[in-house]
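Weekly modeling sync, notes
Attendees: AB, CL, MP (scribe)

Item 1: holo prediction request
CL wants a bound-state model with zinc ion before deciding which constructs to order. AB pointed out that an apo prediction alone won't tell us much about the pocket. Agreed to run with the ligand included and paste results into these notes for async review.

Input as submitted:
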Amino acid sequence: MSSVRPGVVGATRRCPHCRETILESAAVCPACKHYLRYEPGAGAAESTQESAQTPLRIDGSIRHPPDGEPWEYTVVVTIRNDRGEEIARKLVGVGALSPNEQRSFTLSVEAVTAKPKVVRENRPTTLGAKA
Ligand SMILES: [Zn+2]
């Protein structure tokens, strides 16, 4: 489980729709695309993500040869820190490929500038004491 507390850069929460672990700052769930909160002054989801960048994106595909036995495939994504230690590992999906079938895969890492957050009044007060 994450030890990052609410209101801190990198804080996470569960999407109420799909239960994925997502950034607390997300206005739209990146997994299921559901809106998570109303953003005052934001006409569309994209405008709340105006500073979003994609510093990494990899597209690729595999095609089964025209003959041979079918393949089964497993898609796994791992995240490592700067010491090479694995900090996350996720099975994204599995499937099968028959002769001449193709599957395409896209891995993208989105990054947004984390702004200092104003702690809202109704939030549970588990945050550290202020000075
Ligand atoms: Zn979701």
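Recorded for review: The mean pLDDT is 82.
Action items: CL to compare against the apo run; MP to circulate these notes.
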